[in-house]
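Forum > Structural Biology > Help requests

Title: Can anyone predict the 3D structure of Integral membrane bound transporter domain-containing protein?

Hi all, first post here. I have the sequence for Integral membrane bound transporter domain-containing protein but no way to get a structure on my laptop. I'd be grateful if someone could post the structure tokens.
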Amino acid sequence: MGWSRALREAARSGLTIERAKLTPLIAVRGSVGVAVVIGLCLWRGDPVLAVSSAFGAFSSGIVTFQRSMRPRPVLALAVAGALAVSTFLGYLVAAHTAAFVVLLAGWTFLAGMAWAIGPVSGLAGTQTVAIMLVTVTLPTSVLGALQHAALIFFGGVVQATLIVVFPVRPWGTQRDALADALAAEADYARRLRQDPVAPFDPAPLMDARLASTVTARQARRRPAQLHGPRGVAERLRPVLASLADPVVGAPLEGPERDRARDLLAAAATVLDAVAHAVRHARPVRLPPEAMATLEVPATGPMLTGAARRSAYRLISLLVDAVELTDEPVRSTRPTTEAERGHLLRPSVPRLVPVALRALHREARWSSHIFRHALRVAAVAAAGYLLGAALPFGHGYWAPLASVMVMRPDFAQTYARGVARFSGTLVGVTVGGALMAVVHPGEYLSAALAVVCVWLMYLLMRTGFSVTSACVAAYVVFLLGIAGAGWEQTVEERVVLTLLGGLLALLSYALFPAWETPRLRDRLAEWLAANGRYAMAVYGRHARPAEGRPRQVREALLDARAARAAWEESEARAEKEPVRHRGLSAGSAKAAGAALATMGRVTMILEAHLPDKDAEPSPGAAAFAAELGPSLERAERAVRERGTLEWSALRTVWERWDAETGSEGVAPRAADLLLDALDDLAEALSRGPAGGDGAAPGTIRAPQ
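Reply #1:
Sure, ran it for you. Structure tokens for Integral membrane bound transporter domain-containing protein below:
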């Protein structure tokens, strides 16, 4: 799309208000934390300190609403500690403009690089930059700076304490993630009844795995319902696909297909019941019709061959899912050695080397996170100098607005910029009008500020424009505590927010980090990961006695991660005003569909892994041996815009097929795999539409 359309789409996205599940009790708990800090400072008779120290509780509350599987008290304390350090460092050089600008630029660069660790770390880094900007107008002595930093940290302690003392739906995030995965499996089973090759998005399973990775302390306290169903859901997916597939499962028409549809419908009903039980911490309730369908019929339509094996496996797994979920909710058990090796989350101190490796990995010019860090550091410094030069007070609002809206990708930055300005305009208008009409004193201003915080926490997931409006009104009332005139506050906030937003938008236009040129690399990485997964599965068929269960599992996880990286890159590229000179949007979608099919075929074959005492398969060994070199050549061809060639691999398959006479699941799956690879070659051989596929006004991105 061109620049004009890209900006329109970004603006529309930023102004969109979504319907989201509200959590009023959690919002009340977070706003109480802010109220405690403000109230204590007012009780001590220091309104100015109340205004500034509320930031610790406010920001610590924000981070606890983010999608993180870390314990919420830990998040609150970690962010509060970072805010306290940022506050103190900012004060030490606040009196010297040049030194402060250098510190601000360096600190903002590190905060921008924090996105390499994860989105929650990136958000926390952004909050530390914001508090550093605010400290410019605060304490007048080192002792005062230490006191203020302590109050900032105290705000996080208050939030963490409230979370521990007043828990709201413990383990709710983990329950929702597991229930969503089970519900996604149920939806997949229903879709397979109508479309035997329906696609499946593995994102819910990936989220469930992330949620099941717990700290050592959490592992000792985790409810029994959260132990086993995720593993069952992982094993169910290939079995469902294998049963429905018309090539290796039930025939496309006839009594066997009817029986397969009945089993899929019953599986969906059972999985929905298990998901509901997990989400609400209740026992499983199953309708008798579904249980009757899952019984092996004495007469009537019967499945045969591979479909019969899949049906037996499906029934067994569904029974396991119900039994594992129906355990007493409060019971716990020791963590197993397998969980210690794979599902234990490292403690915060042990995350330090992981974070350092992530930062080192992104410290290169081609990294979009590195370029974001440079961009946001330059904008923060420039915004601070411009804000100080303008005839307004609170000039730090300009860089503050820039830092809060800037993200590593184009679409989010522009969308948040529009949402920030629009929300700020609404918030300061409403807040200023109330200040003008009511003329509240200190305590009423504080109460109105807490109400705005509660609304922000409550509506946080509805859209950035809504939360920006709540924050803008919160600031108006908060400054009213210190006696700041509302007329000046409204004017300053609108003008300086507009300036900061314009700086953020201009910075991305002048120094972009486009995702579009990376598409072929992401596609090649997904192809390579899929190839390793396929070779691991065929290696088990070739030499069953030598197979390692973890080898297939790890290859599958790598393939999922590569698919998620591709889908994220493709989604970002679709919103950018650039086009890849060697990969049109249509080719990218077709190539992604082909690789998804390749993964589905491999997954179906995984459902039929042989036992360790099974006979080795020379055909599978030859196919796996040729698959590796063929995929290596194909990976290079994808990156370098070459031609994909599968003739050698097809020759090996034809020899294998002739030897087996099309009997067995493995050679039939290999045929489907080759068809998917041919589709990939055809997708990448298409020339971009219109010469280069670029719309008028669209930049042509380099490769």
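The longest strand covers residues 578-580. The chain has three domains: 3-169+352-510, 179-203+217-221+223-331, 516-701.
Shout if anything looks off.
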